[in-house]
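Suppose you are handed a protein chain with no further information: no name, no annotation, nothing but its sequence. What can you learn? This example shows the usual starting point.
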Amino acid sequence: MKKSFLSLTRIILIVATLIASCVTINQSVRADAGPGPDPTISGIGPYQPQKTNVQMLSETVIIELPSSNPTPNRGEVQFSVKASFTMQNQSEVEETMQVIFPLTRLDVPWNTGRYDIISSSFVAKVNGQAMPITEITTPSEMTYSPKNGDSVTPSEGKFYQDVQWAAFEATFPIHQEVLLEVEYNMRGGGGFTGIEYILETGAGWYGNILSADIILKLPYPATDEVIKDASMGYAFSGNEVQWKMADFEPTRKDNITIRVVNSVNWFAITELRSKVEQNPNDADAWYKLGSEYENLAFWFFYTSCDDHSSYTIESQHFADLSVNAYEKAIAIRPNWGDVHFQLARILWFRNENVEKTFNRYTDKANIQPIKPEDDYVQEVLKELRTAWSYGVTGENDRCETPHLLAYLNSALPNLKLTAPATETVTPAPPTETLLPTSTTVILPTSTITLPTQVAASKKDSASSSYIGFVIGLIILIGISVYLLVFKIKIRK
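A reasonable first move is to predict its three-dimensional structure. Written in structure tokens, the prediction is:
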């Protein structure tokens, strides 16, 4: 079924290649142009700009997310970046230099390489004239310090890869304005698309940047709900998220970062919200809506179906909405095992104590031990047993069950939970109530009321009513025959 965890497990199943696609980690939008490296130190240390008297008077950056996905991969998004810089030479000497533009981040290892910028789309112009592009590298400013069991291969050493730059020539006449323009496309992805605009490289120019406008154009209304996190100082205007700055010399802390809901996910959510608003009794729509919410709720990292190495709650808001949507579907169709199973998963993974227990990067000092008698654990076990008693159709990804059980059995080893041998069954019609059967699942029963008890009592009640009806009918027929015979005797 994905249909919640199918997309998530899609994410899960591709997480082995997550670092290559940078699915949930910020994609760098690669930012301000800067003067070329100081030739006296090039190749010796990290990038340091050459001295210049050219000032950036203003810059305007427009980042635009598409309204539809131009790629066949639902989890991938391409977005465009256009930036213009008005420059002025403040000295009495004309300057000709190599202007460089960062293709990779200066400080974060997982964005080294050029996988996210589509290099063939990169264009640079000087006063409207397209310029030839070359690429240069500068040494990384960071070294690698293994921790938390991480390691590097001998060939990698302890240094991150070199920083990559696009370079082009520009001439700056005395006291004249020169317009620099760059544009390119980037790949992003995941439930939340991460975007970053690097302002710090603009500090290499003379003096302060007099004004800067950074505009993110979304294909849907800009609201707090669609933003996972963002740099301070933004404002909404229709479909835009905007930052405005004036008279500043940028540092690394001024770099703009934001993560917004993938447009493909958001349009699916708004469509399903409209469906359930028009028809609140549409169980299928509620179920699909819960699935879409779940896609935004978690980020998983594992390499096999029974791996329980790490995960993160991306959005507690969407995790709670997912629970609510699944509960709505169950209220309409209570014998739908697939939804009970998905609800069990969400109830487990949305718990912050569970996340802290399994997230390798959290402080384990203040984590409460997970116990079978915990209320949320009992809720999970109840929903899981109900799901298996009604039957799980097998529409959901086949990794979902072993993945959930890997977490549960790791946290609660004494339960020794196992899935029923006959987990995949033919789905029941919506109006049919299946009598749960005893399965091989081993679950605590002290606080769980099994649905079989209710079903059995209804059956006994029906049998008693039927017997009573037959007995009453026999008595009535006997009385009628007696009266008929009595009347015949009187007439005689």
